[in-house]
Specification:
It is built from 8 helices and 16 strands. The protein is an alpha+beta fold. It folds into 2 domains: 136 residues, Rossmann fold, CATH 3.40.50.10330; 174 residues, Tumour Suppressor Smad4 (Sandwich). The strands form 2 sheets. Strands 1, 6, 7, 8, 9, 10, 11, 12, 13, 14, 15 and 16 form a 12-stranded antiparallel sheet that branches.
Amino acid sequence: MPETVAHDPLHLKQTLFIVNPASARGATLRAWADARKEIEAAGVSFEEHVTTRACEATEVAREALNNGTARIVAVGGDGTLSEVVNGYFDDCGRVINSDAAIGLLPSGTGSDFRRSLGLTSRSDSIGRLINSETRLLDAVRAEFQDLDGASVSRVFINVASFGLGGDVSALVNKWRESLPRWIGGSARFAAAAIAALGRYRNVSVSLRLDERAMTINSNLIVVANGRFAGGGMMLAPHAELDDGLLDVIVTDGVTRLDVVKELPRIKRGAHLKNPKVTEMRASEVSIGAEEPMAIDLDGEMLGFTPAHVRVLSSAIRFLG
């Protein structure tokens, strides 16, 4: 059974809200201005930090935890949350303070992790933060090659995708400032998927899930802790945040036409009915390909295969 612990709401006076003003092209700042009023009206004292550059949220979270901050809330999208999650661990991948908790006030292009958490509105999110119950969630540590070819590691909490997913993520982020604000996350990801298909080509992939080894012909593999990615696409419909396992969605021999046909069905998780798609579970996954596959971690294209990922069971104390 997942652990759920109730904490005194007064402990929220030790809360730090980390706000990413670039998330959702400025919409996060407007959402935070409204949320701040509700939080203050609830009698909660807190501090806030507005980031000015990429990866700053990781540094700020890590410093705050080392200085005894009890709650850190990411205000932004999945990328902001991912940075805060990485700040929950030190450079060696160890949890800095297992009694401290992370929270989410969602905004952003995708904001997919909120769906797995069951957050339906800003008021719902604030209510859970003020209530201050926590639960232990899994995280995932990934080792891979960065954009310069150096070996690196990073923690993610939602979804990693390899191949087409990484290419799609790169396009979504490239278009972030150029597309009109009214184009939502799902439409952005769908358009990017169609564009990325222009260079889609399957390659021979060596895959190991725990002790199981296989070779497939693929350009799309998903390793999931959460259920949703890509602006509401239910890539891993059976994934659980606290089961100590990764849901691995593997395609073998999928063509461009297959991907186009499946796009409408992925929204409800029906792509698993395709005989070329297989759902498996493991605690560790290794992926190698005859040509490097792009890697997306929590909505950011960060590098290439070869890669090794392993679940960090019950590693993060999460608010709500």
